[in-house]
Amino acid sequence: MICSSCQANNPDQAKFCMQCGAAQASTCPPCSTELPPEARFCFGCGHQIGEASTPPAVASTPVAPPEPEPITESV
Ligand SMILES: [Zn+2]
Ligand SMILES: [Zn+2]
């Protein structure tokens, strides 16, 4: 892929330009949507881009902490 900043020819899988260090746009493998460098998920199909990172917040029911058992003082 050609760097949009300096026109250097970088490998297709390059995330950053070898010549100027500019972030390269990535392409979604399943749907070939061009994504901005900062995209972590494809806006076209929802495919996760790049390394496995924190998934989107999953709706989880807040768990209430267990109530402490009453302490029976037998002294
Ligand atoms: Zn460059
Ligand atoms: Zn996609």
Task: Walk me through what this model shows.
- By secondary structure, this protein is largely without helices or strands.
- Helix content is 0%, strand content 5%.
- It is built from no helices and 2 strands.
- A hairpin with a 6-residue loop joins strand 1 and strand 2 (34-35).
- The chain is elongated, with a radius of gyration of 24 Å.
- The termini are far apart.
- Residues 28, 30-31, 33, 42, 44-45, 47 line the site of one zinc ion.
Any key phrases for this structure?
about 80 residues, little secondary structure, two-stranded antiparallel ribbon, about 0% helix, elongated, binds zinc ion
Ligand inventory: zinc ion
What is the molecular shape?
elongated
How many runs of DSSP E, i.e. beta strands? Answer: 2
Which strand order spans the largest sheet, edge to edge or round the barrel? 1-2
Please render the helix and strand layout as text.
Elements: E1 26-27, E2 34-35
Antiparallel strand pairs: 1-2
The structure holds zinc ion (2 copies).
Summarize the structure.
With 75 residues, the protein is low in regular secondary structure.
